[in-house]
Design a protein that fits this description.
The protein has 277 residues and is an alpha/beta fold. The chain has eleven helices and eleven strands. The chain folds into two domains: 132 residues, Periplasmic binding protein-like II (D-Maltodextrin-Binding Protein, domain 2, 3-Layer(aba) Sandwich); 129 residues, D-Maltodextrin-Binding Protein, domain 2 (3-Layer(aba) Sandwich), CATH 3.40.190.10. Strands 1, 2, 3, 4, 6, 7, 8, 9 and 11 form a nine-stranded mixed sheet that branches. The longest helix has 15 residues.
Length: 277
């Protein structure tokens, strides 16, 4: 399992000797599995590097970068104006690196008869304006929302794209994996996860990614439709960022270069993510 791989990677590589170069990568839960895969493959050919990877959310990664507890912050959103000001006021210079693209999937339980939603319907659901499935799929049951905490980049991204505030009834989960587990067993559930968490494993998951329509008259697009996402036709798609302290840039550059290499690109694509435009 990916989470076991994450633990093994952190322990094994942090136990290296002092002569090795160290990179601490923290942040986005959307990116953490992909970052582990990339770090493992990079380390297999670059034994002089000690790399630790952990999640916790984009906000945590950026805060760790500010506090000197991370060299690279994975983030599924750009820096906020407040964060930019915080770094500038403390004379901390950053470089921005975009290494992949993600499609955020809106998922429901596999037994939910619904196949698609338009963005207005989704906004009404996630904000709490619509709180029953009856008018959407005919089932007279309450809607349970599964989301993330406010320090999650995906949480902020969904709110901004839909121009809403999440319902206070929304369940705040620690990560994508918890959202999937919750919706697997909850026929009332709806939530959002990175498409990389479900792409390639749709045969085994008990969740259903919905097609999303920009409006009621448009055609629905699935987050698992690779050509459509690559063509920019899916509503919830975004770049994935890595912010790096300038003083660590030269040390991080071999790893960042690996991410852009042919092997890195293949890992990104095979993990269910997309290459940046």
């Amino acid at each position: 399992m990916k989470w076991m791989a994450l633990s093994v990677l952190s322990i094994a590589l942090l136990g290296c000797n002092e002569e090795q170069k160290t990179l601490k990568i923290k942040g986005s839960d959307t990116e953490v599995n992909l970052a582990v895969d990339l770090a493992e493959n990079f380390f297999s050919k670059n034994k002089l590097y000690s790399i630790s990877v952990s999640g916790g959310g984009s906000g945590m990664g950026i805060a760790s970068l500010f506090n000197g507890q991370a060299d690279i912050a994975n983030s599924s959103r750009p820096l906020s104006d407040e964060e930019k000001q915080m770094f500038e006021q403390n004379n901390i210079q950053l470089k921005t690196f975009i290494f992949a693209q993600d499609a955020t999937a809106i998922i429901v339980n596999k037994d939910n008869p619904l196949e698609e939603l338009d963005t207005n319907q989704l906004a009404d659901i996630l904000s709490g304006k619509i709180d029953n499935w009856k008018e959407l799929n005919g089932q007279d049951i309450k809607i349970n929302i599964y989301g993330r905490q406010s320090n999650s980049g995906t949480h902020s991204y969904i709110q901004k794209k839909l121009k809403i505030k999440f319902s206070q009834r929304a369940n705040e989960m620690n990560g994508n994996a918890q959202i999937i587990v919750g919706i697997k067993v909850d026929p009332r559930g709806i939530g959002y996860v990175g498409a990389g968490y479900i792409l390639g494993d749709t045969q085994h998951l008990k969740v259903k990614p919905l097609k999303i329509k920009i409006n009621k008259n448009s055609q629905g697009v699935s987050p698992l439709d690779k050509p459509a996402v690559q063509a920019g036709k899916y509503f919830f798609q975004r770049p994935l960022f890595q912010f790096v302290r300038v003083e660590k840039w030269n040390e991080a550059l071999p790893f960042l270069t690996f991410e852009k290499s042919q092997q890195g690109k293949q890992l990104i694509s095979s993990s269910g993510y997309y290459l940046p435009e």
